[in-house]
Amino acid sequence: MGEDASVNNYDIISIGDSASSNDDHSNSDRTNYFRNISLSYFAAQPTEMLSKHLEFKELCFESGNPEAHYIEGILQLFVKEDEQAGLYHLRQSSDGGYIDGSYLYGLSLLAVERFHKGQKYLDKLGWKESRSTSDQCWERVKKSLTDIPYFMNQGYYIARANLETLCGCRSRKRRGRVCNHGYYYERLNQFVEFAMSKNN
Fold first, then answer.
1. Hey, how many other C-beta atoms are within 10 angstroms of the C-beta on 149?
2. What is the pLDDT, as a whole number, of residue 111?
């Protein structure tokens, strides 16, 4: 009945060696701390960082925390509607090893018709071997976007239609499997349908 823990809970990043004493502050590097601290609460509710926890977000962001870039990417792209800044931060998140950042960056690139580059970032998730990582990322991304009121961009409809045309084999199966382009169309379609549902 309960949802998978990997969907509801972002993994908490352990900071430092678990064997070290809590009283040992000899390795208390401020930049390392803010780069590695888990922002799972805020990744699930990014609007909380829009105003309430701005200074904390900035400290994490300046230290290169990939979750902070993910949150900033969401806020820039979907709240402030700054596509360039949003995509920049999502790429930083992905390049920092945050898989939800890779997923949302790839998906966002598909949505703005940068299909080849979007496919490259979605491919990092190893969907050809197993879709479980992609599916879990999608569930967490949806949770992150739940608090964003309306973020449907008319260009997303056009991108979906153009990707469907490029795909051409979306409904045809090859040996029981959807072709590669069908996977990208399916993911973009999920995103567009979710964004449209936010309007209702």
1. 9
2. 94
